[in-house]
User: Fold this.
Amino acid sequence: MIVFTTAATAQTFNIIPRTYESEFTMSITDDSTNIPVYYDITTATTDVNYLTFNQIFNPVLIEGHFYDIRLYSDYNYWNTNYQLWENDNSFWNIDRTTDATLFRDRIFCTDQEIDQIEDEYYNMNLGVYQTFDSDGNTYKVF
Assistant:
């Protein structure tokens, strides 16, 4: 699972895809609304074993929501697969309605600091749930 924030700035993807492409389409679907948003990625680079690219989300991701992410190359979209045509132009004589999925995963959006090495985990009741500590007669907010 990928964890992102609600920031309106570019967020970096470092993924290990099925195949490495520099141009593809990214589909992000909010699990709450089931509305997909599509982005054309044209600047992906390969860094050792990772495919790396930056993306600004518009609309901005919503705190506490899960998203399904899918990266794919559409074989019927000419600009995405120009390099495939250069390699073997007989491929384009076949009309295909399928696409090639490069990567699938889930995104969770939160502004909380999450660092498992430092024992900082996601707390869904952060700032909402209060407990009473009877030892010192004080309230603690979690």
User: Anything to note?
Assistant: The radius of gyration is 21 Å. Helices lie at 82-87. The chain has one domain: 2-112.
